[in-house]
Amino acid sequence: MENAKIYVIVALCIYAVAMMFIGVKSYTKSKTLDGFLIGGRKVNAWVTAFAYGTAYFSAVVFVGYAGQHGWNIGIGGIWIGVGNAILGCLLSWLLFANRTRKITRKLGTKTMPEYFEKRYDSKNMKIFAAVIIFVFLVPYSAAVYKGLGSLFGAVFPGVDTWVWMLIIACLTAIYLVAGGYIASAYADLVQGLIMIVGVVCLVIAVLCNDKVGGISGLLENLKNFTPVEGDPNPVTGAQLSNIFGGSAFKFLCVNIMLTSFGTWGLPQMIGKFYGVKDTAAIKRGTVISTAFCLIIGIGAYLVGSTSRLILDGKLPEGGVDSVIPSVLTEVLGGSAIGLILFSVIVILLLSASMSTLEAVVLTSASAVAVDLIPAVSKKEISTDKQMKLTRILCLAFVACSFIFATMNIPIIVSLMSFSWGVVSGCFIGPYIWGIFSKKITKIGAFAGMISGLLTVGISTLVISLSSGFSAAAAKSPEMGVCAMAVSFAVVPLVSVLTKKTVKDSERVDEIFACYDEE
Questions:
Q1: Burial (CB count <10 Å: 0-12, 13-18, 19+), residue 236
Q2: Which of 215, 240, 212, 250 is nearest to 73 (CA)?
Q3: Residue 428, pLDDT score
Q4: CATH topology for 2-408?
Q5: Are 54 and 184 in contact (CB under 8 A)?
Q6: Residues pairing with 276 in the sheet
Q7: Any idea what DSSP says for residue 230?
Q8: Each residue of 466-477: pLDDT tens digit?
């Protein structure tokens, strides 16, 4: 393990230097607000595609979801990765990318709250959206820090977890504050390539392990698996080898819907479409991003499905969050080549999380600096001041996320469980209907936002009063899926029951003319 630490430290140093170089190099391209937030709307296909894919998958997917679902469900967990690639990535690019690029250019918007304001002529909607982003995305970034800290804590048990979280926070802050979206996008390209190499190497190493025996051996060995005596959560071989998830089929469906359709309303994901330069880049980006997500998604859950075989059915002391780190140590800890691969995998997990962090932090900072403060301020704020404020807030939000992650503040930890569901539940209806239909009214869009929030809020209250808050947190995926469905249904329904003025109709007709201009 001592040799592994040396390899990892060397890899971390090289990686840190590369990220700081990208940040400094991108500074000259991020001196305007457009450049800092959306890359001046000139970002190419490869960079945008990798920015989308790497923002999608963080260390939480590998250490949390893949480890937990692979341990408890087995091979069927792979469908989550497939669903994420097809529904969360491919369909999102096909349905929304070009329309989002065109309408945000027409409106001159750089953030999702700003899009809501100009699309629906509602300053209050902009304020509401900015508050939702701030309240629920900053805690989400704290969860990512915590997951990374736990990973490095497992590799370096003698170093406190907070030290690693601080190092990660400083590295993220340096290149994000310096270069904004351009820096994060080019960093995502590098991080994405590292992730692909890392996942492919990890899958090969795991499948070649004697306890797994390749793809055919994996299925056969999972089928013949018997739980060890004293296992607190015994799972049969029939369950682990069931390609459709067996008794966990319903659970799989809910998680596929939440983690796939949820991206359709998340501002840090949709924001990637604002800066892509043209239609041709979107066509190429669709293929690239989908291929990336298939490799990462399937690879992560495939590795997770081998965990009970590799660890002989013994759950590590750290619980399901320690499953993947323990698999890495078991599979890659023996040889020099294995140690090199181990360091690559650690950088993979770091890359996955930093790309998610930078997207969330930039989205949260811009929501406050560009949307919230100018909306509530009585004084007009220039774009130069907004850009400087955004840089400062990026730094502040990185610091806040780090503090929240180290302090284990109960309310922050609770908000993490609901972040995806609430944010996407509020935004998915007004956003999607807003780019496709002229008939959506301001009241209909606002009703969709509020209904998404109330769906989660009321459900949480009812379940908490009857069974306790922990039971409500456990149901957060189902709540998130319901919130998205309710928001999507409420927006057109309320719009039918409300009227638009002639002025509104003319304004919307002018906006939708952008789809005929190219």
A1: middle
A2: 240
A3: 95
A4: Sodium/glucose cotransporter (1.20.1730)
A5: no
A6: 43
A7: T
A8: 988 888 888 888
One-letter amino acid for residue 483 of the chain: A
CA atoms within 13 A on the CB side of 487: 34
Domain limits, the chain: 2-408, 411-518
Cβ proximity of 441 and 495 under 8 Å: yes
The CA distance from 356 to 184, in Å, is: 10
Q: Tokens for 397?
A: 């939000």
Tokens 């009585």 locate to 378
Tokens for 351?
């890359």
pLDDT tens, residue by residue, 83-128: 999 999 999 999 999 999 999 999 999 889 999 999 999 999 999 9
First to last CA, the chain: 58
Q: What is the dihedral of CA 333, 337, 340, 341, to 10 degrees?
A: -80
Residues 6+ positions from 506 with CB-CB distance below 8 Å: none
- Return d(Cα 269, Cα 275) in angstroms, integer: 12
183 φ, ψ (degrees, to nearest 5): -60, -45
Give tens-digit pLDDT for 242-280.
Answer: 999 888 898 899 889 888 998 899 998 898 999 898 899
- Distance from C-alpha of 338 to C-alpha of 202, rounded to nearest angstrom: 10
Give, in degrees to the nearest 5, the angle at Cα 421 between 83 and 296: 30
Cα separation, 374 vs 357, in Å, equals 25
- In whole angstroms, give the CA distance from residue 428 to residue 152: 35
Angle between helical axes of 476-497 and 249-261 (0-180°, round to 10): 50
